[in-house]
User: Fold these one by one.
Assistant:
Number 1:
Amino acid sequence: MASMNLIARIHAALERRYGVRAARRVLSNPLDDLILAILSQKTGDTNSCRAFQTLRQVLPTWEQAHRAPESAVAEAIGSAGLAQYKAARIKAILRQIYRVQGHFDLTFLRDVSVEEATAFLGRLNGISSKTVARLLLVSLGKPVFPVDAHIRRVACRLGLVSLTLTPKKIQAALQSMVPLPLLFPMHVNLEQLGQKTCKMPTPLCDDCPLSKLCPSTR
Ligand code: SF4
Protein backbone atom coordinates (compact mmCIF):
# COMPACT_ATOMS: atom_id res chain seq x y z
CA MET A 1 0.00 0.00 0.00
CA ALA A 2 1.20 3.55 -0.75
CA SER A 3 2.74 5.42 2.16
CA MET A 4 0.96 8.40 3.69
CA ASN A 5 3.95 10.43 2.64
CA LEU A 6 3.43 9.52 -1.03
CA ILE A 7 -0.29 10.33 -0.84
CA ALA A 8 0.50 13.68 0.79
CA ARG A 9 3.09 14.49 -1.91
CA ILE A 10 0.66 13.55 -4.71
CA HIS A 11 -2.03 15.71 -3.10
CA ALA A 12 0.34 18.67 -2.71
CA ALA A 13 1.54 18.42 -6.32
CA LEU A 14 -2.03 18.25 -7.61
CA GLU A 15 -3.02 21.26 -5.52
CA ARG A 16 -0.11 23.23 -6.92
CA ARG A 17 -1.45 22.47 -10.41
CA TYR A 18 -5.20 22.76 -9.89
CA GLY A 19 -5.44 25.01 -6.82
CA VAL A 20 -6.63 24.32 -3.30
CA ARG A 21 -10.06 22.73 -3.00
CA ALA A 22 -12.11 22.63 0.16
CA ALA A 23 -11.93 19.27 1.93
CA ARG A 24 -15.66 19.00 1.58
CA ARG A 25 -17.31 21.49 -0.70
CA VAL A 26 -20.86 22.64 -0.10
CA LEU A 27 -22.88 19.54 -0.82
CA SER A 28 -25.05 19.66 -3.90
CA ASN A 29 -28.62 18.41 -4.17
CA PRO A 30 -28.59 14.59 -4.50
CA LEU A 31 -31.51 14.37 -6.92
CA ASP A 32 -30.15 17.19 -9.08
CA ASP A 33 -26.83 15.32 -9.30
CA LEU A 34 -28.61 12.04 -10.05
CA ILE A 35 -30.53 13.59 -12.96
CA LEU A 36 -27.35 15.30 -14.18
CA ALA A 37 -25.59 11.93 -14.15
CA ILE A 38 -28.31 10.51 -16.41
CA LEU A 39 -28.04 13.52 -18.73
CA SER A 40 -24.25 13.26 -18.92
CA GLN A 41 -24.25 9.74 -20.39
CA LYS A 42 -22.49 9.67 -23.75
CA THR A 43 -22.13 13.45 -23.93
CA GLY A 44 -19.88 16.20 -22.57
CA ASP A 45 -20.40 18.45 -19.57
CA THR A 46 -21.40 21.46 -21.68
CA ASN A 47 -24.31 19.67 -23.34
CA SER A 48 -25.52 17.90 -20.21
CA CYS A 49 -25.38 21.09 -18.12
CA ARG A 50 -27.28 23.00 -20.80
CA ALA A 51 -29.94 20.26 -20.91
CA PHE A 52 -30.22 20.31 -17.11
CA GLN A 53 -30.67 24.09 -17.05
CA THR A 54 -33.32 23.98 -19.76
CA LEU A 55 -35.15 21.20 -17.94
CA ARG A 56 -35.19 23.27 -14.73
CA GLN A 57 -36.40 26.34 -16.64
CA VAL A 58 -39.24 24.47 -18.34
CA LEU A 59 -40.12 22.28 -15.34
CA PRO A 60 -38.67 24.06 -12.27
CA THR A 61 -39.47 21.35 -9.70
CA TRP A 62 -39.03 17.58 -9.77
CA GLU A 63 -42.70 17.34 -8.88
CA GLN A 64 -43.51 19.09 -12.16
CA ALA A 65 -41.11 16.89 -14.12
CA HIS A 66 -42.74 13.85 -12.52
CA ARG A 67 -46.20 14.97 -13.64
CA ALA A 68 -45.17 16.21 -17.10
CA PRO A 69 -45.50 14.03 -20.19
CA GLU A 70 -42.33 12.18 -21.13
CA SER A 71 -42.31 14.08 -24.43
CA ALA A 72 -42.04 17.42 -22.56
CA VAL A 73 -39.02 16.15 -20.62
CA ALA A 74 -37.45 14.81 -23.83
CA GLU A 75 -37.95 18.14 -25.58
CA ALA A 76 -36.34 20.06 -22.71
CA ILE A 77 -33.23 17.86 -22.56
CA GLY A 78 -32.64 17.67 -26.31
CA SER A 79 -29.14 19.18 -26.13
CA ALA A 80 -27.90 16.18 -24.10
CA GLY A 81 -28.67 13.73 -26.95
CA LEU A 82 -30.53 10.40 -26.63
CA ALA A 83 -33.40 12.54 -25.39
CA GLN A 84 -36.15 9.90 -25.59
CA TYR A 85 -34.04 7.33 -23.76
CA LYS A 86 -32.87 9.75 -21.09
CA ALA A 87 -36.36 11.21 -20.59
CA ALA A 88 -37.73 7.71 -20.04
CA ARG A 89 -35.02 7.01 -17.47
CA ILE A 90 -35.59 10.33 -15.67
CA LYS A 91 -39.34 9.70 -15.52
CA ALA A 92 -38.80 6.16 -14.25
CA ILE A 93 -36.41 7.32 -11.52
CA LEU A 94 -38.80 10.08 -10.43
CA ARG A 95 -41.70 7.60 -10.34
CA GLN A 96 -39.66 5.17 -8.29
CA ILE A 97 -38.51 7.80 -5.78
CA TYR A 98 -42.03 9.18 -5.40
CA ARG A 99 -43.46 5.71 -4.91
CA VAL A 100 -40.96 4.97 -2.13
CA GLN A 101 -40.69 8.41 -0.52
CA GLY A 102 -43.82 10.35 -1.46
CA HIS A 103 -41.52 13.32 -2.17
CA PHE A 104 -38.31 14.15 -4.02
CA ASP A 105 -36.03 15.28 -1.22
CA LEU A 106 -33.11 12.85 -0.93
CA THR A 107 -31.09 14.91 1.54
CA PHE A 108 -32.19 12.52 4.33
CA LEU A 109 -29.53 10.16 2.90
CA ARG A 110 -26.88 12.43 4.44
CA ASP A 111 -28.04 11.31 7.87
CA VAL A 112 -27.97 7.55 7.29
CA SER A 113 -24.99 5.20 7.09
CA VAL A 114 -22.94 4.69 3.92
CA GLU A 115 -24.45 1.19 3.67
CA GLU A 116 -28.04 2.44 3.92
CA ALA A 117 -27.47 5.27 1.43
CA THR A 118 -25.72 2.86 -0.96
CA ALA A 119 -28.60 0.39 -0.70
CA PHE A 120 -31.22 3.08 -1.35
CA LEU A 121 -29.43 4.51 -4.39
CA GLY A 122 -28.52 1.04 -5.65
CA ARG A 123 -32.19 0.10 -5.77
CA LEU A 124 -32.94 2.89 -8.23
CA ASN A 125 -33.32 1.45 -11.71
CA GLY A 126 -30.33 1.74 -13.98
CA ILE A 127 -28.05 3.69 -11.62
CA SER A 128 -24.52 2.30 -11.83
CA SER A 129 -22.32 1.65 -8.81
CA LYS A 130 -19.97 4.35 -10.16
CA THR A 131 -22.77 6.93 -10.07
CA VAL A 132 -23.81 5.76 -6.61
CA ALA A 133 -20.25 6.23 -5.32
CA ARG A 134 -20.01 9.71 -6.80
CA LEU A 135 -23.34 10.75 -5.26
CA LEU A 136 -22.21 9.37 -1.91
CA LEU A 137 -19.11 11.59 -1.93
CA VAL A 138 -20.23 14.71 -3.79
CA SER A 139 -23.90 15.06 -2.81
CA LEU A 140 -24.00 13.27 0.53
CA GLY A 141 -20.51 13.91 1.94
CA LYS A 142 -19.83 10.24 2.69
CA PRO A 143 -16.27 8.88 3.08
CA VAL A 144 -16.13 7.20 -0.31
CA PHE A 145 -13.59 7.40 -3.16
CA PRO A 146 -15.44 6.95 -6.47
CA VAL A 147 -13.44 5.27 -9.20
CA ASP A 148 -14.11 6.03 -12.84
CA ALA A 149 -11.97 5.05 -15.84
CA HIS A 150 -9.73 8.11 -15.41
CA ILE A 151 -9.02 7.51 -11.74
CA ARG A 152 -8.45 3.80 -12.30
CA ARG A 153 -5.91 4.52 -15.03
CA VAL A 154 -4.05 7.22 -13.06
CA ALA A 155 -4.01 5.21 -9.81
CA CYS A 156 -2.61 2.18 -11.67
CA ARG A 157 0.07 4.21 -13.48
CA LEU A 158 1.07 5.81 -10.18
CA GLY A 159 1.45 2.34 -8.70
CA LEU A 160 -1.16 3.01 -6.00
CA VAL A 161 -3.23 -0.01 -7.05
CA SER A 162 -2.87 -2.98 -9.35
CA LEU A 163 -4.58 -3.07 -12.73
CA THR A 164 -5.74 -6.59 -11.91
CA LEU A 165 -8.07 -5.34 -9.14
CA THR A 166 -11.77 -4.87 -9.79
CA PRO A 167 -13.11 -1.27 -9.64
CA LYS A 168 -14.74 -2.15 -6.30
CA LYS A 169 -11.41 -3.29 -4.85
CA ILE A 170 -9.62 -0.25 -6.28
CA GLN A 171 -12.23 1.93 -4.57
CA ALA A 172 -11.71 0.11 -1.26
CA ALA A 173 -7.91 0.39 -1.59
CA LEU A 174 -8.00 4.13 -2.34
CA GLN A 175 -10.47 4.73 0.49
CA SER A 176 -8.11 3.03 2.89
CA MET A 177 -5.02 4.98 1.83
CA VAL A 178 -6.44 8.51 1.31
CA PRO A 179 -7.09 10.43 4.56
CA LEU A 180 -10.70 11.58 5.02
CA PRO A 181 -10.08 15.32 4.47
CA LEU A 182 -8.35 14.53 1.16
CA LEU A 183 -11.04 12.26 -0.31
CA PHE A 184 -12.91 15.00 -2.16
CA PRO A 185 -9.95 17.08 -3.41
CA MET A 186 -7.92 13.99 -4.42
CA HIS A 187 -10.89 12.50 -6.24
CA VAL A 188 -11.56 15.67 -8.23
CA ASN A 189 -7.88 16.37 -8.94
CA LEU A 190 -6.98 12.83 -10.03
CA GLU A 191 -10.02 12.83 -12.31
CA GLN A 192 -8.83 16.10 -13.86
CA LEU A 193 -5.32 14.73 -14.26
CA GLY A 194 -6.75 11.70 -16.05
CA GLN A 195 -8.88 13.85 -18.35
CA LYS A 196 -6.21 16.42 -19.22
CA THR A 197 -2.78 14.85 -18.80
CA CYS A 198 -2.64 11.16 -17.89
CA LYS A 199 -4.65 10.28 -20.96
CA MET A 200 -5.32 7.14 -22.95
CA PRO A 201 -3.47 5.81 -24.80
CA THR A 202 -0.47 8.13 -24.35
CA PRO A 203 0.02 10.13 -21.15
CA LEU A 204 1.49 13.63 -21.40
CA CYS A 205 4.19 12.96 -18.82
CA ASP A 206 6.25 16.01 -19.81
CA ASP A 207 3.42 18.20 -18.57
CA CYS A 208 2.47 16.11 -15.53
CA PRO A 209 2.77 17.54 -12.00
CA LEU A 210 3.34 13.99 -10.71
CA SER A 211 6.12 12.98 -13.09
CA LYS A 212 8.76 12.93 -10.30
CA LEU A 213 6.57 10.64 -8.19
CA CYS A 214 5.33 8.31 -10.91
CA PRO A 215 6.94 4.96 -11.74
CA SER A 216 5.27 4.96 -15.18
CA THR A 217 6.58 8.33 -16.34
CA ARG A 218 7.95 8.31 -19.88
S1 SF4 B 1 3.83 10.86 -15.04
FE1 SF4 B 1 2.74 10.20 -16.87
S2 SF4 B 1 1.94 8.16 -16.41
FE2 SF4 B 1 2.52 9.12 -14.46
S3 SF4 B 1 0.64 10.10 -13.71
FE3 SF4 B 1 1.75 11.63 -14.88
S4 SF4 B 1 0.94 11.52 -16.96
FE4 SF4 B 1 0.33 9.65 -15.88
Number 2:
Amino acid sequence: MEDKKYNIGTILTMKKQHPCGENKWEVVRVGADIKIKCLGCSHTVMIPRVEFNKKIKKIISLDGDKNE
Ligand SMILES: [Zn+2]
Protein backbone atom coordinates (compact mmCIF):
# COMPACT_ATOMS: atom_id res chain seq x y z
CA MET A 1 0.00 0.00 0.00
CA GLU A 2 1.22 3.43 -0.89
CA ASP A 3 0.97 6.32 1.51
CA LYS A 4 -0.95 9.31 0.36
CA LYS A 5 0.97 12.53 0.54
CA TYR A 6 0.31 14.58 3.58
CA ASN A 7 2.26 16.55 6.11
CA ILE A 8 1.67 18.61 9.16
CA GLY A 9 -0.65 21.39 8.05
CA THR A 10 -2.28 19.40 5.27
CA ILE A 11 -6.03 19.93 5.05
CA LEU A 12 -8.07 16.94 3.93
CA THR A 13 -11.52 15.44 4.00
CA MET A 14 -12.39 12.08 5.48
CA LYS A 15 -14.90 9.57 4.15
CA LYS A 16 -16.86 9.89 7.34
CA GLN A 17 -18.05 13.29 8.47
CA HIS A 18 -17.45 14.38 12.05
CA PRO A 19 -20.59 14.55 14.23
CA CYS A 20 -20.17 18.34 14.48
CA GLY A 21 -21.00 18.57 10.76
CA GLU A 22 -17.50 19.46 9.55
CA ASN A 23 -15.69 17.22 7.13
CA LYS A 24 -12.33 19.00 6.90
CA TRP A 25 -9.41 17.99 9.05
CA GLU A 26 -5.93 19.33 9.54
CA VAL A 27 -2.98 16.99 10.07
CA VAL A 28 -1.26 18.02 13.29
CA ARG A 29 1.09 15.09 13.83
CA VAL A 30 2.63 12.49 11.55
CA GLY A 31 4.20 9.30 12.83
CA ALA A 32 3.17 5.69 13.30
CA ASP A 33 -0.12 7.28 14.25
CA ILE A 34 -1.58 10.27 12.50
CA LYS A 35 -3.17 12.99 14.58
CA ILE A 36 -5.79 15.13 12.94
CA LYS A 37 -7.82 18.09 14.13
CA CYS A 38 -11.39 18.80 13.11
CA LEU A 39 -11.63 22.27 11.60
CA GLY A 40 -15.19 22.58 12.83
CA CYS A 41 -14.81 21.93 16.56
CA SER A 42 -11.04 21.51 17.05
CA HIS A 43 -11.52 17.97 18.30
CA THR A 44 -8.36 15.90 17.75
CA VAL A 45 -8.16 12.22 16.89
CA MET A 46 -5.24 9.80 16.67
CA ILE A 47 -5.52 7.14 13.99
CA PRO A 48 -3.00 4.43 13.03
CA ARG A 49 -1.42 5.41 9.72
CA VAL A 50 -2.68 2.35 7.83
CA GLU A 51 -6.24 3.01 8.92
CA PHE A 52 -5.91 6.71 8.24
CA ASN A 53 -4.85 6.08 4.63
CA LYS A 54 -8.05 4.14 4.09
CA LYS A 55 -10.21 6.85 5.57
CA ILE A 56 -8.92 9.79 3.57
CA LYS A 57 -11.38 10.98 0.97
CA LYS A 58 -9.55 13.88 -0.58
CA ILE A 59 -6.50 16.02 0.06
CA ILE A 60 -7.50 19.65 -0.20
CA SER A 61 -4.35 21.56 0.60
CA LEU A 62 -0.84 20.23 0.79
CA ASP A 63 0.61 22.98 2.88
CA GLY A 64 3.21 21.02 4.72
CA ASP A 65 5.74 23.72 5.49
CA LYS A 66 3.78 25.78 7.95
CA ASN A 67 5.13 25.96 11.44
CA GLU A 68 2.73 26.64 14.20
ZN1 LIG B 1 -15.81 18.29 14.66
Number 3:
Amino acid sequence: MRAASQSPATVTGCEPGFRGVICVSFGAANTLADHDAGGMPRQDFRFASANPEALANLRSVLERSCVGVRLVLAGPPADVHAAASAVAECGLVDEEITLLCDEVGPRVIFCGHCHASTTTDHPIGTDVDCRGCATTLTFTDHFSRRVGGYLGFSAHAEEAA
Ligand SMILES: [Zn+2]
Protein backbone atom coordinates (compact mmCIF):
# COMPACT_ATOMS: atom_id res chain seq x y z
CA MET A 1 0.00 0.00 0.00
CA ARG A 2 1.30 3.34 -0.98
CA ALA A 3 1.21 6.43 1.20
CA ALA A 4 -0.55 9.42 -0.27
CA SER A 5 2.61 11.48 -0.04
CA GLN A 6 4.30 9.17 -2.52
CA SER A 7 1.74 9.70 -5.24
CA PRO A 8 3.06 11.54 -8.25
CA ALA A 9 2.15 15.20 -8.30
CA THR A 10 -0.64 15.70 -10.77
CA VAL A 11 -3.09 18.46 -11.37
CA THR A 12 -6.26 17.67 -9.50
CA GLY A 13 -9.14 17.86 -11.89
CA CYS A 14 -12.53 19.30 -11.38
CA GLU A 15 -15.09 17.01 -9.85
CA PRO A 16 -16.94 15.04 -12.53
CA GLY A 17 -19.71 17.09 -14.00
CA PHE A 18 -18.25 20.38 -12.86
CA ARG A 19 -20.22 23.26 -14.34
CA GLY A 20 -18.60 26.59 -13.85
CA VAL A 21 -15.57 28.59 -14.80
CA ILE A 22 -12.16 26.96 -15.21
CA CYS A 23 -9.52 29.66 -14.82
CA VAL A 24 -6.12 28.76 -16.24
CA SER A 25 -3.18 31.13 -15.99
CA PHE A 26 0.30 30.78 -17.44
CA GLY A 27 3.51 32.46 -16.37
CA ALA A 28 4.59 34.09 -13.15
CA ALA A 29 1.73 36.50 -12.64
CA ASN A 30 -1.57 35.22 -11.29
CA THR A 31 -3.55 37.44 -13.60
CA LEU A 32 -6.80 35.71 -12.80
CA ALA A 33 -6.75 36.26 -9.03
CA ASP A 34 -9.32 39.02 -9.35
CA HIS A 35 -11.20 37.55 -12.30
CA ASP A 36 -14.95 37.85 -11.91
CA ALA A 37 -16.51 34.47 -12.55
CA GLY A 38 -19.98 35.99 -12.57
CA GLY A 39 -21.09 34.13 -9.47
CA MET A 40 -20.40 30.73 -11.01
CA PRO A 41 -18.22 28.20 -9.20
CA ARG A 42 -14.62 28.47 -10.32
CA GLN A 43 -11.64 26.19 -10.39
CA ASP A 44 -8.13 27.59 -10.75
CA PHE A 45 -5.13 26.07 -12.45
CA ARG A 46 -1.69 27.58 -12.86
CA PHE A 47 1.09 26.47 -15.15
CA ALA A 48 4.57 27.91 -15.67
CA SER A 49 4.09 27.71 -19.42
CA ALA A 50 1.98 25.96 -22.04
CA ASN A 51 4.36 23.01 -22.33
CA PRO A 52 3.12 19.61 -23.54
CA GLU A 53 2.67 18.35 -19.98
CA ALA A 54 0.56 21.35 -18.99
CA LEU A 55 -1.55 21.04 -22.12
CA ALA A 56 -2.12 17.33 -21.49
CA ASN A 57 -3.24 18.12 -17.95
CA LEU A 58 -5.56 20.80 -19.21
CA ARG A 59 -7.12 18.49 -21.76
CA SER A 60 -7.75 15.79 -19.18
CA VAL A 61 -9.42 18.33 -16.91
CA LEU A 62 -11.72 19.41 -19.70
CA GLU A 63 -12.50 15.87 -20.76
CA ARG A 64 -13.81 15.16 -17.26
CA SER A 65 -15.93 18.28 -17.23
CA CYS A 66 -19.46 18.60 -18.46
CA VAL A 67 -20.69 20.45 -21.46
CA GLY A 68 -21.42 24.01 -20.44
CA VAL A 69 -18.15 24.67 -18.67
CA ARG A 70 -16.49 28.02 -19.31
CA LEU A 71 -12.77 28.30 -19.80
CA VAL A 72 -10.64 31.37 -19.17
CA LEU A 73 -7.05 31.35 -20.40
CA ALA A 74 -4.68 34.08 -19.27
CA GLY A 75 -0.98 34.82 -19.60
CA PRO A 76 1.59 35.53 -22.31
CA PRO A 77 -0.07 35.46 -25.75
CA ALA A 78 2.06 32.58 -27.06
CA ASP A 79 1.06 30.36 -24.11
CA VAL A 80 -2.60 31.37 -24.27
CA HIS A 81 -2.71 30.62 -27.98
CA ALA A 82 -1.02 27.25 -27.62
CA ALA A 83 -3.57 26.32 -24.96
CA ALA A 84 -6.48 27.60 -27.03
CA SER A 85 -5.41 25.43 -29.93
CA ALA A 86 -4.98 22.41 -27.68
CA VAL A 87 -8.40 22.68 -26.06
CA ALA A 88 -10.10 23.07 -29.43
CA GLU A 89 -9.88 19.28 -29.60
CA CYS A 90 -12.03 19.05 -26.46
CA GLY A 91 -15.06 20.38 -28.28
CA LEU A 92 -15.32 23.78 -26.62
CA VAL A 93 -16.71 26.46 -28.88
CA ASP A 94 -15.41 30.01 -29.10
CA GLU A 95 -18.22 31.34 -26.93
CA GLU A 96 -17.08 29.12 -24.07
CA ILE A 97 -13.49 30.32 -24.10
CA THR A 98 -12.18 33.67 -22.94
CA LEU A 99 -8.63 34.61 -23.87
CA LEU A 100 -6.92 37.18 -21.67
CA CYS A 101 -3.53 37.87 -23.17
CA ASP A 102 -0.90 39.94 -21.47
CA GLU A 103 -0.38 43.28 -23.18
CA VAL A 104 3.22 42.44 -23.87
CA GLY A 105 4.84 39.25 -25.03
CA PRO A 106 5.26 37.38 -28.27
CA ARG A 107 2.25 36.80 -30.49
CA VAL A 108 1.94 34.47 -33.42
CA ILE A 109 0.79 36.12 -36.66
CA PHE A 110 -0.56 33.78 -39.31
CA CYS A 111 -0.04 35.13 -42.82
CA GLY A 112 -3.22 35.08 -44.90
CA HIS A 113 -1.14 35.07 -48.07
CA CYS A 114 1.53 32.38 -47.69
CA HIS A 115 0.27 30.75 -44.45
CA ALA A 116 3.58 31.14 -42.63
CA SER A 117 3.60 31.93 -38.92
CA THR A 118 5.60 34.89 -37.69
CA THR A 119 6.23 35.52 -34.00
CA THR A 120 6.37 39.16 -33.03
CA ASP A 121 6.59 41.35 -29.95
CA HIS A 122 4.71 44.12 -31.70
CA PRO A 123 1.42 45.22 -30.10
CA ILE A 124 -1.93 44.76 -31.84
CA GLY A 125 -2.55 47.29 -34.58
CA THR A 126 1.03 47.57 -35.78
CA ASP A 127 2.69 46.15 -38.88
CA VAL A 128 4.96 43.14 -39.02
CA ASP A 129 6.91 41.68 -41.91
CA CYS A 130 5.91 38.12 -42.80
CA ARG A 131 8.69 35.62 -42.28
CA GLY A 132 7.49 33.63 -45.28
CA CYS A 133 6.70 36.08 -48.08
CA ALA A 134 8.03 39.37 -46.63
CA THR A 135 4.62 41.01 -47.08
CA THR A 136 4.01 43.80 -44.58
CA LEU A 137 1.17 42.42 -42.50
CA THR A 138 -1.25 44.22 -40.27
CA PHE A 139 -3.16 42.33 -37.63
CA THR A 140 -6.06 43.02 -35.32
CA ASP A 141 -7.21 41.32 -32.16
CA HIS A 142 -8.99 38.71 -34.26
CA PHE A 143 -7.46 35.51 -32.98
CA SER A 144 -8.11 32.33 -34.93
CA ARG A 145 -8.09 29.12 -32.96
CA ARG A 146 -8.12 27.19 -36.20
CA VAL A 147 -4.64 28.38 -37.11
CA GLY A 148 -3.46 29.09 -33.57
CA GLY A 149 -2.59 32.72 -34.16
CA TYR A 150 -3.71 36.13 -35.24
CA LEU A 151 -4.68 36.50 -38.85
CA GLY A 152 -2.44 38.94 -40.71
CA PHE A 153 -3.28 40.65 -43.97
CA SER A 154 -1.35 42.83 -46.32
CA ALA A 155 -1.19 46.25 -44.72
CA HIS A 156 -1.27 47.95 -48.12
CA ALA A 157 -3.75 45.79 -50.00
CA GLU A 158 -5.84 48.75 -51.12
CA GLU A 159 -2.89 50.62 -52.54
CA ALA A 160 -1.56 47.56 -54.36
CA ALA A 161 -4.90 46.73 -55.95
ZN1 LIG B 1 3.37 35.56 -45.87
